Amino acid sequence: MQKKRVVISLGHSALGATLPEQREAVTKAVRAVADLVADGANVVITHSNGTQVGMIHTAMNEFAKAHAEYTGAPMAVCSAMSQGYIGYDIQNALRAELLRRGIYRNIATIITQVTVDPYDEALYQPTKVIGRVLTKEEAEAEQKKGNFVTEVEGGYRRIIAAPKPQEIIELDSIRLLLDAGHIVIAGGGGGIPVLEQGETLRGASAVIEKDLIATRLAEELRADELVILTSVDHVMLNYGRENATPLGKITVSEAEGYIREGQFGDATMLPKVQAACSFIRRGGKRAVITSVHNAKAAFEGSAGTSIVEG
Ligand SMILES: Nc1ncnc2c1ncn2[C@@H]1O[C@H](COP(=O)(O)OP(=O)(O)O)[C@@H](O)[C@H]1O
Ligand SMILES: NC(=O)OP(=O)(O)O
Description:
Blueprint: E1 5-10, H1 19-38, E2 42-47, H2 50-66, H3 75-100, E3 107-110, E4 113-115, E5 128-134, H4 136-144, E6 148-152, E7 155-160, H5 171-179, E8 183-186, E9 192-197, E10 200-203, H6 210-220, E11 225-230, E12 236-237, E13 245-246, E14 249-251, H7 252-261, H8 269-281, E15 286-291, H9 295-299, E16 305-308
Parallel strand pairs: 1-2, 1-11, 2-8, 3-8, 4-9, 11-15, 14-16
Antiparallel strand pairs: 5-7, 6-7, 9-10, 12-13, 15-16
Helix pairs in contact: 1-3, 2-3, 6-8, 7-8
Bound molecules: adenosine-5'-diphosphate and phosphoric acid mono(formamide)ester.
The site of phosphoric acid mono(formamide)ester has 11 residues, from helix 2.
């Protein structure tokens, strides 16, 4: 019998912001992955990169300005770097966690490119926040460099275009490794957005929403479950209000109704619930949205928000 297949998406709280924070946060996040593996699942991991790609872009390009022998790095190269370095931390933390449990599995990160449509209007309207929170002065300096910023809680953050994913270029390699029982880290940060130009794939100055690539991977790989680990234990109705109510097990029709009511934050919870609905509509058995902390209980059905057929 084929093992259960699970695509698990790690949000920014599973990664932290700085290098030491990431190493620490990933150590906790991989326990949820190890629980799934110990339970016999074949797993593909995908993850956020907004904070990391912003940090890498600033580090690469500011340094290059001051040192003529270095060149700056375009956003697509920074996305590739973020996949490499986040994958490196996840590989090592997960390997150690599994070995502690007496389990040995091959774990590999696939640098993943995803085509985007050059006519996607999102390419011309930056919406996706990247990097750390900036002061007003730092935000003004970014604008002078031609970058875009938006006001957020506590300050400002850079924003960048977020086109829709089209084709996952390395999909066959991901599937091959998964079929062979390897744990695969893929589509990190939504995948590196690329534009197809003849034989060439040209990096786009954008970042793809990772919830969209999580559902795409889950659909293409015919996963049984999609698990989205984020910063809250449940999806809530009336979030942030006095009458806020956590959602337990709901059907895809109910979830779509809540979407129509505007129950979910546009750039935060909405893409996760949409990803979950799309996955179930295309044949997935269960989508779970919860925190790293609650993951084990959510896998067992006693915590988190589960979206199922119906
Ligand atoms: N209806 C809702 N229920 C729960 N959380 C919500 C809701 N609407 C918006 N949110 C916000 O969504 C956030 C999770 O999304 P996000 O910050 O993008 O995390 P991630 O990095 O995991 O993708 C929560 O911290 C919460 O502030
Ligand atoms: N690429 C992406 O969606 O990253 P965040 O989750 O950090 O926004």
